[in-house]
Each structure stands twice: as structure tokens, then as C-alpha cells.
Write a structure and sequence with these properties.
Length: 654
């Protein structure tokens, strides 16, 4: 049943839709469908290709689903359907199931042209995947095979089939779903995104799972290439020289494989590792200070990856312990240079890094392990480990997903205040609106008063009382308080214990359908099947090392005995940072010279901009039944946050 007609309506209709889609009763989670689903046939863009209608969602990456919805209510003619389609796509992209359903429910299929009708069905399939009705999604995609699709829609159909098969654990069918995909001019980013999603799945499979997917009698030759690459990556993924040699051998056998162009360049930066030119590396760490545990975890991670590297020309290491004597860091740095260091890793910590910012030039490549407020001088790379940097990443992700109206909830601590301020500033830079912000004490457990005020229940109750007074006591009104409707995302800055208290209270105050983003501190590295149930639905970013269990991560847990003391603890993140620091001592110089190069590290996908700052792209996860689960990825490339708010270029049809 449609909620309202697809014509211009007053804003009251928008309020009714928002009311029904956001504050309604919680829906029951559907049961996942069975994995034994036949893969759809190959989908290709016919000639002549179907002419696309204006795709607002692609044209305006910074516009939220609610804004598209508002436009739909004000528009006339075909623009109504275009805006409802864009709203549905944005909601589905953000995992907002009920609003996506409602937007689709208000589309009138009989007035859609062929392109819009296809888009409508593709979005229906995407919603079915969000509902975990993967078999239904595949049936929709299979029906679309028989219709005329433009190249982007054909790629989207392939992506939905891939997503459904991955969701059901059907690796063989996932491989089949990307055979023969079209690659027309201008679509390379889409094609690359699909192959990367397939690779992301294959590279996290256990060895036994890869073996099950590789039946020589039935496996397509392209699929064999994927599986062999995944096997060698699982075995050699942390051996920098061994991986380079193994990939060279694979390329000789598979020169025209899709992975050759779209995946292999992302596994290792191009060019030779410069570590052959490095004879000595200095580690500048506070090993005998209050931060001893963190410093030792970092050192052991560095040593672990060095041990795994089969390069016979590995440099020697020298440790320089500055303890708690921060003021002596420059002296230790100079001593390391005099001792012949070709690369310096450190110092570790914001205050220690600040003591070196006065240098006009770093005499040898130096990886600073902390935030710097000043511009970097030549020779320096900076790894920003601050909570502020993580908060900015959170804001960028939420904005790129299509949210635009945020509420901030922050604990009354200096650390969480700094995080909230960094997120708010970045949110504003990206064109987002901050609709509310509240600070809560850390020494209480009942936040109901704060929640009632923050979500506007006091105003809702006041309106009800005013209405009751206006009509008199003879007629009693039936009233259920409503929360404020000008929020589409919540940023929660709190530690794990506080988040476990707050999320159920957010849900209780009728905000259970609002996405809640928080920082990695919400997860210790060890799943808690009881207490983490209170974090249901919370979205956070973390290092792959902390949340991935298959592929090369499984082999590392077996091989890196130095990791044992830190496993499933917060110090494991410092261990992962040490691993990546060793890789940067190898690949850092060419990555800085060529900012497009990346390295898939233990802390995330690393890149270096032309100023020397190291960017880290983490994994994004949502708590589902007390377990961190990777967020489902939409079937097209995610709009980079840097494009938000900019005018589109090229063909407006996308």
C-alpha cells in the first residue's frame, strides 16, 4: 500500500512518511535464505545500449536520502519518480532498510520508462539482500537478464548477484557471477570495485574453503586463477619478498586475468622494495616508561614482519629507548643518525613527535608515530594515531554514505571531547549539519533524562498537553510521544562500557532505527557473546588485523609467536602498527613519490600523500548478534568523501 500519491504534497506528508518509517515498531529480522542458489547467467549491455535516465543518486553524492525524499514530495511529473529512486538508493546504500522500503513503495511503476523500471527492480533486489532474502534478490536479477540494461545497470546486477552469493557463503557462485562482465569506457571504477569485492571475499577464506571451491573438473579457468592467487596470498601475504616473487610467477601464468589489472597492483606497491638499500633501521621507542606495553607491542610487531620477510638483505635493527625523558628525544634521534641509521622509525607518541617538529629537514627517511600539528619537513612521514584522526574518518564515512544530519553524543572526558570536536569540524567541512550535541557524565548509568531532552520527547509531551487543554477534559486523546525527526545519524563518542549502557537507551527512546557510529574502542578484539548484545547495530571502524580471521590473517596468527601476549587485546593494534611500520620502511619512499600507490596493511589500506602524511583506510563493521560483521557494500563504487559538495562532471546520467 502506498503512503501517499506520487505528486507534490505539503510538508505534512513528509512528516507522516518519516514518522512511519523511522519511529514505527521494530521489524523482525528475516531468516537468511539457503545457499544453494543457481547463479544468474552472464549479463551484458546490449547494443545499442539503453539510454539512461538522469541518475540523481550518482550525480549528487552529497545529497541525503531525506533530502531526495523531500524533493520527491515537492516535485511534479517524472521528477517525482527520479527523486524517490534516488532516495531509495541512498537509504539502501546506508543500510536503512525501512526508509528504503518506504521510498520504493511510493514509486509508481506504471509511469516509469525502461531505464527507471530496471533501476526500480535493481533497488528492490538490493533491499531483499538487506532483508537477507538472497534467493529473492537473485530471482529479480535473473529476470533482469532478459531485459535491456545499460552498462551501469548490468554491472549493478552483477554486483548484486555477487553480494547475494557472498552473503550465503557460496564462493563458487560468487566467482561465476563476475564472468564476462561488460567493461565499457568510463566504467573502469565500477568494474574494479566489483573485482575488489570478489577478491576481498576470496582473500579471507580459510585454506579448506578455497580447496572446496577449486574443483579442477568443474572450475572455469578464470576461477582457477582467482583461487590460486588467493592461496598464494594466504601463504605469502606477510612475506614481502616472497609475495613479490610468487606474484611474478602467477602473472606469467595469468597475464590476461581480470585480477592482473584490477587486483594485483593493489597487493604490493609497484617497483622494488628499497630495503635492499637500507642497512640499518633505528627504532625510537619509550620502552621503559608508563607506555612500556604499547612500545613493546609495536616493537614486537615490527620484529614479527621482519622475521617473516625472506629477503636475505634485511637491515639490522637498533633500539633507542628514550623512556619517559621526552626532552631527550632529539638527542637520541641524532645519536641514531651518527650510528649509521638509514631509516628511523619513531618516536612513538604525540609529545615525543612534537620535539622533532623544529627540524628543518630530516637527514634520513623518518616515520613519525604520532600526530603533528606543523607541516612535515622533507624526509618525514607521519602516521597519525590520534583519536581525532579516527573521528574525522568516521565523519567522512558517514557523509560518503549519504547522511547529512548528525547528532553527537559524547562522554564527559577530555579524550572524547577532542574526538567529538574533530568529527564535528570535519562534518561541517563536508557540508553536513549538526542538529544536536550533548555531553553525558561518566559516573551514571541512567541516561533517560538526557535522552528525553536530546530526542525532543519533552516538546512532544508539551504539545500533547497543549492539545488536551485545547479540546478539554471530556475528550481524552490517545498519545504516544514522538522523537525529533531532524536526525539521520548518531555519532557516539564513548568507551566500551559507556556504549553498552547508551545504545539500549538510544533504542528505548525510539531511535533504534538511526545508524549509530562510534570508534574502535568499542571493540577490544575479543567478541563477547553476552555483553556485546547491547551494542546491536552499532557501526565502527577497526584494523583488519583485529577483525579478520581468514586468509593471510589466519596464517599470521599461527606463524607470529611474538603476537601471543597481545592477542585479543587493545595492544594488538600497536602490534599491527609495528608490522605496517616495517612495510613502510620498505615501500614508503616510492609510495610518497607516487601518491596513488597503496599497501594493504595490518592496520588498513595505507597510502601516502605528497606532504608525507600516511592515510589509513580501515574495515567498517556492524555488531550483529554480538559479533562484528563487515558492512555490506553497495553494488557500485562508493562516492569518495572528497567529491561531496562538488559539482558533477561529465555525463549527468552517470
Amino acid at each position: 500500500m502506498r503512503l501517499f500519491h506520487a505528486v507534490a504534497l505539503p510538508r505534512l506528508a513528509l512528516f507522516v512518511l518519516v514518522l512511519l518509517t523511522v519511529t514505527g515498531c521494530a521489524t523482525t529480522t528475516p531468516k537468511p535464505s539457503a545457499p544453494d542458489i543457481a547463479a544468474p547467467r552472464a549479463i551484458s549491455a546490449p547494443e545499442p545500449a539503453l539510454k539512461p535516465t538522469l541518475n540523481l543518486a550518482e550525480r549528487e553524492p552529497g545529497t541525503s536520502g531525506w533530502e531526495f525524499l523531500d524533493r520527491a514530495l515537492r516535485a511534479t511529473g517524472i521528477e517525482v519518480q527520479q527523486n524517490f529512486l534516488a532516495a531509495a538508493e541512498r537509504f539502501a546504500h546506508g543500510g536503512m532498510l525501512d526508509p528504503a522500503r518506504a521510498a520504493l513503495d511510493n514509486i509508481e511503476p506504471t509511469v516509469l520508462d525502461a531505464w527507471m523500471a530496471n533501476q526500480f527492480q535493481l533497488l528492490q533486489a538490493q533491499v531483499r539482500i538487506l532483508e537477507r532474502r538472497n534467493a529473492d534478490a537473485l530471482r529479480i536479477v535473473d529476470r533482469l537478464v532478459k531485459t535491456q540494461l545499460d552498462s551501469r545497470q548490468a554491472l549493478r546486477a552483477h554486483g548484486l548477484a555477487l553480494q547475494a552469493h557472498i552473503a550465503t557463503g557460496s564462493s563458487g557462485e560468487a566467482l561465476t557471477s563476475l564472468r564476462g562482465i561488460p567493461n565499457n569506457p568510463g566504467d573502469d571504477a565500477w568494474v574494479g570495485a566489483l573485482y575488489h569485492r570478489l577478491w576481498n571475499h576470496l582473500s579471507q577464506l580459510e585454506t579448506e574453503q578455497l580447496a572446496l571451491a577449486a574443483d579442477p573438473a568443474t572450475t572455469h579457468s578464470t576461477d582457477v586463477g582467482w583461487l590460486k592467487l588467493a592461496r598464494l596470498y594466504a601463504d605469502k601475504g606477510w612475506d614481502l619478498l616472497g609475495l613479490s616473487n610468487s606474484i611474478d610467477q602467477w602473472l606469467k601464468s595469468w597475464p590476461n586475468h581480470p585480477a592482473t589489472h584490477h587486483v594485483v597492483p593493489k597487493l604490493l606497491p609497484e617497483g622494488q622494495c628499497t630495503i635492499q638499500e637500507v642497512q640499518q633501521i633505528a627504532l625510537l621507542l619509550p620502552l621503559t616508561s608508563a607506555y612500556r606495553g604499547a612500545a613493546e607491542a609495536f616493537r614486537d610487531g615490527f620484529h614479527a614482519l621482519r622475521r617473516r620477510d625472506s629477503n636475505p638483505a634485511k637491515p639490522v635493527l637498533r633500539n633507542y629507548d628514550f623512556g619517559d625523558k621526552i626532552d631527550l628525544v632529539p638527542a637520541y634521534y641524532e645519536e641514531a643518525i651518527r650510528d649509521g641509521a638509514d631509516v628511523v622509525i619513531g618516536p612513538l607518541g604525540r609529545a615525543a613527535v612534537a620535539t622533532l617538529t623544529g627540524l628543518t629537514e630530516f637527514p634520513v627517511p623518518t616515520v613519525l608515530l604520532g600526530a603533528t600539528g606543523a607541516p612535515l619537513q622533507p624526509g618525514a612521514l607521519a602516521f597519525d594515531l590520534s583519536i581525532e584522526n579516527d573521528a574525522r574518518t568516521l565523519a567522512e564515512r558517514a557523509r560518503a554514505t549519504g547522511f547529512s544530519r548528525a547528532m553527537i553524543l559524547q562522554a564527559q572526558t577530555d579524550q572524547q571531547r577532542r574526538a567529538a570536536e574533530a568529527a564535528a569540524a570535519r562534518w561541517a567541512e563536508l557540508g553536513g549539519t549538526l542538529t544536536a550535541r550533548a555531553t553525558f557524565p561518566v559516573d551514571i548509568s541512567d541516561y533517560s533524562t538526557i535522552m528525553e531532552q536530546l530526542f525532543g520527547f519533552n516538546f512532544s509531551l508539551a504539545r500533547a498537553r497543549a492539545l488536551q487543554n485545547a479540546i478539554g477534559k471530556k475528550t481524552r486523546i490517545r498519545f504516544s510521544p514522538r522523537r525529533r525527526q531532524d536526525i539521520d545519524v548518531v555519532f557516539l563518542f564513548a568507551d566500551q562500557a559507556q556504549a553498552r549502557l547508551l545504545k539500549p537507551q538510544i533504542d528505548f527512546h525510539r531511535a533504534h532505527k538511526l545508524p549509530v557510529y562510534t570508534l574502535s574502542g568499542v571493540f577490544s578484539g575479543k567478541p563477547d557473546a553476552v555483553n556485546d548484545l547491547d551494542l546491536e547495530g552499532v557501526i565502527f571502524a577497526d584494523m583488519p588485523w583485529m577483525v579478520r580471521r581468514g586468509g593471510r590473517f589466519a596464517s599470521a596468527r599461527q606463524q607470529f609467536t611474538l603476537n601471543t601476549p597481545y592477542r585479543e587485546s587493545v595492544l594488538d593494534r600497536l602490534f599491527a602498527l609495528g608490522m605496517d611500520a616495517y612495510a613502510l620502511s620498505c615501500f614508503g619512499p616510492q609510495m610518497q613519490q607516487r601518491p596513488g600507490l597503496t599497501y594493504p596493511g595490518a592496520t588498513g589500506t595505507l597510502s601516502i600523500d605528497d606532504t608525507g602524511r600516511i592515510d589509513r583506510s580501515p574495515d567498517w563493521l556492524r555488531f550483529v548478534q554480538a559479533t562484528p560483521v563487515a558492512l555490506p557494500v553497495p553494488p557500485g563504487p562508493i562516492a569518495p568523501f572528497s567529491n561531496i559538495g562538488q559539482e558533477p562532471s561529465g555525463d549527468p546520467s552517470g
